[in-house]
Design a protein that fits this description.
- The protein is built from twelve helices and three strands.
- By secondary structure, it is mainly alpha-helical.
């Protein structure tokens, strides 16, 4: 068999128009997360922190499902010109790092705006490491959920000193090679579904608390919502551990 025959026999069949359209639609869906991040920044600039939380939650929701959609749509085959992983990292760095850092400064959750340089730098390295996700589908190092930290610092009205200590501690945690669960990649399907459902409920509770801060504070709604982050950390400690690779 000559070289030409070999190329023809292994060539990827051309993508159908409808499948390619679906694949491009998934990429647009992923990219739209950046638009919600931009809307969150606009809301922060206008002092509408409750609205900013809602926009941040929408972008978080997009990030939680776009990977599954990309796999189902076979975007690597039907839209091969776009690197979906790179796009996802770019959008995530905006929404999980830059937007919440601006939010924390605007909300007065740190003693100086310069402290947020730590998560910006730490997460730049965290997102760029070759093994940001391990072969057994865990995040390696604290996965830069700065948006979650921003929610709680604001909703719980913690002092700037407390916020600054959290920022410093979690910036260091980005570099500690501990494995944290990747919810959508959990091998145990019932557990994966449970995390998904409770995550959706958590998002609705945070959204309600952001729009009703006084009532949420009076009835300890925000404090109760900490059960979900506690569940995430507990499963990470049980199923993860220090990376030995």
């Amino acid at each position: 068999m000559n070289a030409t025959d070999s190329t023809e026999s292994t060539a990827t069949p051309p993508a159908s128009g409808s499948r390619a359209l679906i694949a491009w639609g998934v990429h647009i869906f992923t990219a739209s997360g950046a638009v919600w991040g931009l809307l969150a920044l606009f809301a922060i600039m206008q002092g509408r922190l409750g609205s900013a939380v809602l926009f941040m939650l929408v972008s978080l929701g997009i990030d939680s499902i776009d990977g599954s959609l990309a796999r189902k749509a076979s975007v690597q085959h039907y839209a091969p010109g776009i690197d979906g992983r790179r796009m996802d990292d770019i959008v995530d760095y905006l929404n999980f790092v830059i937007v919440p850092c601006v939010f924390m400064v605007a909300a007065g959750n740190v003693t100086s705006p310069y402290w947020v340089a730590l998560p910006v730098l730490a997460s730049a390295f965290g997102f760029s490491q070759k093994e940001a996700k391990t072969e057994d589908d865990f995040f390696l190092g604290w996965p830069s959920y700065w948006n979650v930290l921003a929610f709680y610092l604001w909703l719980l009205e913690l002092t700037p000193w407390v916020g600054t200590l959290w920022v410093i501690g979690l910036s260091i945690a980005v570099f500690i090679p501990y494995k944290y669960i990747y919810p959508s990649q959990l091998k145990n399907k019932p557990l994966r579904n449970f995390i998904g459902v409770t995550g959706i409920l958590w998002a609705f509770v945070i959204a309600w608390a952001a729009l009703n801060r006084d009532t949420a504070s009076a009835y300890f709604v925000t404090e109760a919502s900490l059960l979900f982050p506690a569940l995430y950390m507990g499963l990470s400690f049980k199923l993860g551990g220090l990376h030995r690779g």
